[in-house]
Amino acid sequence: MYLVSNQGVTLLTLATSIPSMKPPECNPRKGGHCIEASGQQLALLYTALYILALGGGGIKSNVSGFGSDQFDSSDPKENKSMIYFFNRFYFCISLGSLFAVTVLVYLQDNVGRAWGYGISAGTMVLGVAVLIGGTTLYRFKKPQGSPLTIIWRVLLLAWRKRKLTYPSDPGFLNAYHNTKVPHTHMLRCLDKAAILDDSAAANEDSKSPWIVSTVTEVEEVKMVLKLIPIWSTCILFWTVYSQMNTFTIEQATFMNRKVGNFAIPAGSLSVFLFISILLFTSINERVTVRIARKITHNTQGITSLQRVGIGLLLSIVGMVASALVEKRRREHAIHHNFNISAFWLVPQFFIVGAGEAFAYVGQLEFFIREAPEGMKSMSTGLFLSTLSMGYFVSSLLVSLVQKATKGRWLKSNLNKGKLDLFYWLLAVLGVINFLIFIAFSMKHQYKVQNLSSIEDSAEELGNWKDLTLDNKEKKLEADEKVEA
User: Fold this and answer.
1) DSSP secondary structure, 192-238, as one string
2) Which regions span the lipid bilayer (predicted)?
3) In whole angstroms, how far apart are CA 442 and each of 229, 282, 439?
């Protein structure tokens, strides 16, 4: 998928460097007639974008799951290291984003877009070389078939057998005693997929997965369905985040961006967003998690859902700050004919960036840890879909607000609109979404980790070593009484 993405970026480089593939420059603010791109030019552009999207989707849905596969969750030391992996993984992603909005944006604005895309293509080739170079060090897990097939099969069988009565004892369910996942009573209707009815038992191929599911398969499907409520409440965070790349950048174009004689590109102001992400990702790893471990005596320190909750709260605060700044900016522009400094946007970048440091890592950790072992790539894709859905909801909200307000809130000229009211709307929706998230989080039961029993055994062994001979004998007698 790295090679596929590289081909997409290479095509973008060609689309912006070959003269015949570039439409004439157009600046609506300076007036003049703009010539539309030709069919060939659009064909090359869209081909490059779709190939890049294909490669990016493959990379993003697999790289985090593959990274977590390098750790053995049954080993206390490796499980502890995996907690830091998610932080460091996103830290590195944010470093790349920081490079993009500073160096690449500058090159694209002042030298040429082809340079920005060309450098990106070159770094991806370097990334492929590093990936291949470490092949002998990786842990590979054998694929166990498509998780979508298992989900579809369990749901189909549960529907077909919906009229069957539940067995008197769950031990009668297919492969109950060989299950790899503890049986639960949640979504009990799906248990019917594991019932071996009389007609199926008479079939020679009665153990076929299309005749009856195993308890393991049913419980894995339950795990996936348990993620959906939390998934739905994570979407709005990325709707808020999308404003940092759209309306906030548009705000910057109406503000004073000069530092001495140098005018900061509006897109480069996102640097404060990524600085905030890098800062809080580091603080979370080195300070927050360690303090939380001492207080809660939990290996994770802060649970994944607690991280997500903090991220959602910060997104609400970020929208409040955005609304206040926009109101101030518009008042100065209209009543005083004065453009305030673009650095007034730093607080909202900083707050939402801090929220992303919590929300991204928390969501990624939640969807990977809570998913079945064989469905990590799919759960990562489920997590990434919250990002795409967030941007989709943002576009939908803009359309609805435009229609409801008859275009009074959102205008291309922000001085004639009321963008601050749109930010207040997002803040109110964020509060409602946060309350729903709290309700879902309180009902969610974390997947049983194998580590817990190991840690308990290790702790018990440590306590045993500290006992004197007399105390050991007393402990044995006490244990025997408890067993009796």
Assistant:
1) GGG---HHHHTSTTTT-TTT---HHHHHHHHHHHHHHHHHHHHHHHH
2) 89-108, 114-138, 223-242, 262-283, 304-325, 345-368, 380-401, 421-440
3) 12, 28, 5
Identify the residue whose tokens are 């946060």: 434
Kindly list the domain boundaries of the chain, sorted by start residue: 1-23+38-141, 147-219, 226-444
CATH number 1.20.1250.20 is the correct assignment for the domain at 226-444? yes
pLDDT category of residue 241 using cuts at 50, 70 and 90: very high
Question: What does the DSSP 8-state code read for residue 403?
Answer: H
- Asked if residues 473 and 95 have their Cβ atoms less than 8 Å apart, the reply is no
Neighbours of 348 (CB within 10 A): 27
Contact between 282 and 91 (Cβ < 8 Å)? yes
Helices (H), ranges, 69-208: 76-99, 105-110, 113-133, 147-160, 198-201
Lowest mean pLDDT, pick from 43-57, 96-110, 211-225, 270-284 = 96-110
Nearest to 383 by CA among 320, 304, 442: 304
Does 117 have pLDDT greater than 60? yes
CB atoms within 10 A of CB 49: 14
Q: List residues bridging with 259 in a β-sheet.
A: 262
Predicted TM-score (pTM) of the model is 0.73
pLDDT, position 325: 93
Partners of 92 in the β-ladder: none
Return d(Cα 474, Cα 266) in angstroms, integer.
73
